[in-house]
Structures
1.
Amino acid sequence: MVAGTDGDGRKLFHVIPPGCLRDGVNGKEIDYGVCVLRLR
């Protein structure tokens, strides 16, 4: 959860679907099946 940029009190929620986050060779990876995001 992060604060919105408009300053009106809204919050932004981000969810990674279960089973998509994994430990890769160089750090965490998010595998969506179509693409893999590598987080270092």
2.
Amino acid sequence: MADPASYRYTKDHEWIDTATGRVGITDYAQQQLGDVVFVDLPEVGAKVTQGQSFGTIESVKAVSELFAPVSGEVSAVNASLKDKPEVVNSEPHTTWMIAIKMSNPGEAAGLLDAAQYAELVK
């Protein structure tokens, strides 16, 4: 079961479940975006770098980049988002986009914890 309290967060409003490497966007981010209509994600095996764009998320309001919370290799992609991107709006903290096999797990320690992230968005 997903536990947002144990996730690490970026200032760009992505979360990572460090236990699984799964990455998604926060409730705050989906509220800012509005209705999500499309998610463009990388292929399994793609390399990602902390802080760099790994894809885009498109809503009725805007197209926004998605930023990797950690560096590594994409080990899985949530293919169901191709047909149902709107699930990001209804379940942002359980809807993962990609999973990253971290090349430097120490990077996650530098991300915000749940309390720090809550302070950022209040």
3.
Amino acid sequence: MTTFNLRAEMNQQRGENYQLHRQYLNAQLVRVLNTIGYDRFYEKGEGAYLIDQNGDRYLDFLSGFGVFALGRSHPVVKQALQDVLDSDLPSLVQMDCALLPGMLGKALLKKVPPRINRCFFANSGTEAVEATLKFARYATGRPRILYCDHSYHGLTYGSLSITGASEFREGFEPLLPACEVIPFGDLDALEKEVKKKNVAGFIFEPIQGKGVNLPSEDFLINAQAICRKYGTLTIADEVQTGLGRTGKFFAFEHWNLEPDLVAIAKALSGGYIPVGAVLCKEEIFAKVFHRMDRALVHGSTFGKNPMAMAAGLATLHVLEEEKLVENSEKMGQLLIKGLKPLVEKYEIFAEVRGKGLMIGLEFRAPQSLKLKIGWTMLETAQKGLFSQLITVPLFQRHKILTQVAGNNMNVIKILPPLIISETEVNLFLKGFEDVLADTHRYPGTLWDFGATLTKQALKRN
């Protein structure tokens, strides 16, 4: 009998994380983490915290880019996965209709407007987005897809074709044809295109992840009306904003929308098993899968695997039982309330914005001469570099993990687990103000680190 002891194997190579990644995976990521001092050896995750090999605890305000809505190692999700393993289910028979996908589909569709009544499962957010593009084109018989500038929808070929962040597209073009961008919030530009009646779908993030950009109060509801007028389907990308992140179960609820298709993923995983889903209207599904010989015209081999389905069901249970959507709204309001006075107090801090626990912190060029020298030094070397002057000491000094909201912008995005309490809110507010105050002391040790970042950026350039 073959023996394999994972713990023994891990113990044997303990501490070789970065060496292994440097040699066999992405060496550039290792360089980034070394440069900014994020190169920790995490060994455990508990709730809102990461624990390294020395037992130090780090408050995780990144949540795996929104994956860990329930925090890490939630016992309900763990038990559900153990139940699946212990049941020895006939996984992925393919030519069958397993119980768990049906149960999760039913549970998810209770969360959307009544006319959205079909569900398709995939492995990730980008796969879910890919499916919405195919469904929209087939259901309408039209070729074009519209998307917004500064958007992010994923990095596979189709999703990348509708991602407005240029840094991800560079070097991979030409991408899919008939995918065209409009300015986020520009209703005139949207109507100019959809009135041609050849646009299959308009895809949008209710709140853009790159930069945490919120729409004006009337943009999305009017965009939906314009699309309906000309027969264009609306596609809500809720991969990051969905499942309570913004203080509503879906972010589109803030604007009373009824999209035709909804893409979800990230938090649905419970932090364990990758899963994505598309929720859409019956008439769209019926057009795509309209004959028996088209029953498998679109699919995903691992999309309905029982571990992912169990994680999804457990996640929905926890969100409801622990009232995490409501907690997201409450803790988000506390964070924003605590952060807003700092905008008036510190000249470099420009704005706090967001909904629920999806919050952007934006910085601006200072007016005072000394600070302007430091700011100009950083921004000349690389636009958006100042943000790292916040994230790095926040991490190293206060053990709070955050990251910038995108390339070439001075915005930090915070995405805490939805389970956080006032304790974690206060820890963040205290740490953030301490670092912010330090940036207003020029010259100083923080700006010395800024000089190091500048040298690294100039060397790269």
